[in-house]
Amino acid sequence: MSASSAGPILELRDVSLSFKGVKALNALSFAVARGEICALIGPNGAGKSSLLNIINGVYRADEGEVVFDGAPFRRIRPLEAARRGIGRTFQHNALFKRLSVIDNVLAGLTRHSRTTLVEHAFGLPRDLAESRALRARAEDIIEHLELTPHRGTVVSTLPYGVQKRVDLARALVGRPSLLLLDEPMAGMNQDEKRQMSRFVTEANAVLGATVVLIEHDIGVVMDLSHHVVVLDYGRKVGDGTPRQVRNDPDVIAAYLGTVH
Ligand SMILES: Nc1ncnc2c1ncn2[C@@H]1O[C@H](COP(=O)(O)OP(=O)(O)OP(=O)(O)O)[C@@H](O)[C@H]1O
């Protein structure tokens, strides 16, 4: 075991971020253990998406640092974060809506390929063997996420729940060690949520990704996660197992209301 693999995969140390005087994150500290599913919960505007944006380099922390795999940073470029093994989905998925499922999943492999997106679009792979290997990887993940019937379908024509799964496939195809999911179940019915929960569990247990996810459905959070961090106005108001957090009076007061 290397030195970095002994500690938590992710640590936030006193991270603060403001937008024109509004403190989105206020001296936030917590750690995510390797191999866990960690849920970030809290009311709208609590700072959850901003935090994911700092971890994968979309935003830069004003203060504090992020330690990923033992290496601290305050700012990292999104491509560099992806290269180091941080995968990401977005609240409103950022898929290429006019492209097929397979092409969207292949786009998630750009960081692994010496072939550029333009070369890929024109069918000009630099290295045929590389291209075949990456395509096989994309086909595997499509099968794994039960997207095979949709593999050639243009994304914009798919139901929203299936699009969210394509977004997950695109994030997973790069084999991230840390997978950041921003409301992967937003807008889904109970059946779709159950299905997505199964895929997130498999990404964690079978594919080995540590998961940090933002989710508003407390039932889903309690069933799915090993660890829950609660944010309110950019501050941490709870941190523990789902059961600990559920029974924490501060969390109940700030967010959960009366728990039966
Ligand atoms: N790019 C931005 N420019 C200005 N203010 C921002 C920006 N991003 C976030 N904020 C502000 O930072 C605060 C935290 O927002 P953030 O989106 O991180 O919260 P959240 O917990 O993810 O909310 P939600 O559950 O509604 O997605 C809010 O006050 C928000 O208005």
From TrEMBL:
<keyword id="KW-0813">Transport</keyword>
<dbReference type="InterPro" id="IPR027417">
    <property type="entry name" value="P-loop_NTPase"/>
</dbReference>
<protein>
    <submittedName>
        <fullName>ABC transporter ATP-binding protein</fullName>
    </submittedName>
</protein>
<dbReference type="InterPro" id="IPR003439">
    <property type="entry name" value="ABC_transporter-like_ATP-bd"/>
</dbReference>
<dbReference type="GO" id="GO:0016887">
    <property type="term" value="F:ATP hydrolysis activity"/>
</dbReference>
<dbReference type="Pfam" id="PF00005">
    <property type="entry name" value="ABC_tran"/>
</dbReference>
<keyword id="KW-0547">Nucleotide-binding</keyword>
<dbReference type="Pfam" id="PF12399">
    <property type="entry name" value="BCA_ABC_TP_C"/>
</dbReference>
<dbReference type="GO" id="GO:0005886">
    <property type="term" value="C:plasma membrane"/>
</dbReference>
<dbReference type="GO" id="GO:0005524">
    <property type="term" value="F:ATP binding"/>
</dbReference>
<dbReference type="InterPro" id="IPR003593">
    <property type="entry name" value="AAA+_ATPase"/>
</dbReference>
<dbReference type="InterPro" id="IPR032823">
    <property type="entry name" value="BCA_ABC_TP_C"/>
</dbReference>
<dbReference type="InterPro" id="IPR051120">
    <property type="entry name" value="ABC_AA/LPS_Transport"/>
</dbReference>
<keyword id="KW-0067">ATP-binding</keyword>
<feature type="domain" description="ABC transporter">
    <location>
        <begin position="10"/>
        <end position="258"/>
    </location>
</feature>
